[in-house]
Fold each of these.
Amino acid sequence: MSVSSAMEENPPKVNKWDGNALKNALDDAVKDVLLSHFSYIESHKLLDGRLMISSVAVGFSIFALVWDWLYPFPQSRSVMLVCVVVYFVMMGVLTWYTTYLERGIFCTALNKDVAGIDPDQIWNASSSLKRFDNKYHLRLSQRTGGSGRPKEARTVLTVENFFDETGKLLYASVAKEVLRLHSDLDSKKN
Amino acid sequence: MNCRQIFYQFLNFAMIVSSALMIWKGLMVVTGSESPIVVVLSGSMEPAFHRGDLLFLTNYEQEPIRAGEIVVFKVEGRDIPIVHRVMKVHEKEDGAVKFLTKGDNNNVDDRGLYANGQAWLNRKDVVGRARGYVPFIGIVTIIMNDYPKFKYAVLAGLGVFVLIHRE
């Protein structure tokens, strides 16, 4: 069997009334199960894209700040105008990126082919938890890299079944659900 | 949290600060004034404006300065802007203008406030013309300037909160 991970030994304890903390803890646990039980490698492409867009936006804003300091207002007008417009365009791009490309995906794991011939299998885990709701929607999808159509498996977890009264995460229950989804997907035919 | 997460938290913080900064710069560009929103610091314009009122300014070059208008100006050598009313205007055909100001609640005109030997203000001294105002809200800025420790405490608290809080 696999080596038990640090999170399995020591599951995190969260404020059980804070929905945000619960979602983050469950996301972390799902990610931990995917990466430690299988020999998958995490792909940071999605998060890197978001970091890139944000960095460009912040870069423009810092440039505007410095330019205005060096060449006080009336002369810096056109540069300011460009920077402000670009900044808000970048914010729009970021919103589009988060809504359409990311779609709640918090983990992308790659199952690399040992021989290096076949394209990688891409596993995407995404989740959502509405405010004041107790239903954590988890979606696991598997796609064979390149052009494969994604296979999906979803489940809904009621959060109280995965945390004990003190707010400690019940890692084993989460692992069971994730592994079940995983084997469902593996065995499902296209 | 790995280093990507930490970088992301800092970026989040930077984006919040940048958004505020860009909105301010955007206002500067749209109104043409280097300080589009100012707080009234003294009672020299009562009963029109009181200490703590927030003023919205525009500074369009094409609009001429006329007597009776309320302008915000900076005296050369001092960086605190003053908001008073224009009393007298001398205008040349080429558009060069000299004007004299006085606070509504003052007994004398502003010649005592101008730089040594200066008797009139020019167009370039004007930061903007008052277009609208919101009463009282500026008191927060006055308090934060009078008690800088309070300002740093609020900013530090906000900063820490944004850096730690995971979306």
Amino acid sequence: MMKRLESIHKSTSRIIEIQGQMTERCLELLLLPEDSSCLLLDIGCGSGLSGTVLEENGHMWIGMDISSSMLDVAVERDTEGGLVLADMGEGVPFRAGCFDGAVSVSAIQWLFNADKKTHNPVKRLNKFFTTLYSSLSRSARAVFQFYPENEKQLELLTTQAMKAGFYGGVVIDYPNSAKAKKFFLVLMTGGVGPLPQALGTEEPDSLQVKYAKREATKGIRGKPIKNSKDWILEKKERRRKQGKITKPDTKYTGRKRSGRF
Amino acid sequence: MKLITHNMLTSKCLKGVVTGYPLAINATDIKVKEVDFNPEFISRVIPKLDWEVLWVAADSIGHSDGLPRSLENKYDENEEFLKKAHKVLLEVEVEEGHLTCPESGRQFPISKGIPNMLLNEAEVQ
């Protein structure tokens, strides 16, 4: 009996430790200004495990969760963040531009579950990302640690996020370890930026930059952005198919011209 | 519910509501819980607040004593003021009561310090 209790205790401590590490990693990826005290949104804050890490890093947080029993535990644990009982699929119920950043640890995959017959996951994802976008201040980021079931879920998440106006991509830490592999959806509000390097990999061009790159060259509808090199190449190909005289593609095609042009 | 949470909270997820801010507070039970004072955070968060809303909220629950109705110059250098702001923002908690949406009149209960913003199906946009 004691041995069993010990092993349960150990696995609970381990879970708490992992949640803590994932929160620290989310904070890292948030790229907040150094040594500053920020107001952060914790989405799916649960019993406040991630919130405690945010506090320890000197930030103030407001958390939302759909489970009142988990929030009651957060109160018991005397966490210092603000707590709100809310369903993220109904929207993020805060004023425009109030948060310096948002984190979420192991929570957003719940948006894929249609708990009620009337739940439409796409609609909920859209509602969530649109309202989240508006609640963030300019150049704030949102980082979500989550466990995608499959490629399709990942696609759906990133598509809905981009539709809401976010830029970003997925960082995959330890991509080659089944046990340690972790997914972080990193969303930015203020312009395209490079994704941070993933942990446990030396390949600079691997999975983690996949979605960011795609979004940098294509607009929301998946078409190349007008006047980009991709757009120029596609347009020339269309002209050739129409039988129009088109100059051949060379290394100069779509090259950046100097300001003097 | 802390007043910093109240200052950010809206009912805009309700169908037909445009801004849903500020929510009116009706408190039946209030507690004061000690929170570590971080003057840097308080100075940084003040520009994000709707100060008038904060003052009115604090006043509506009887905690506006000594809190200026409008922000003074160089408030970030006034430790007395920052401490008062800290108390009102982070230490005063509405334990029981309800919030009311200014546009729809819909009430949101506050129980054990936590505001319940869950909507029913007909209310979702």
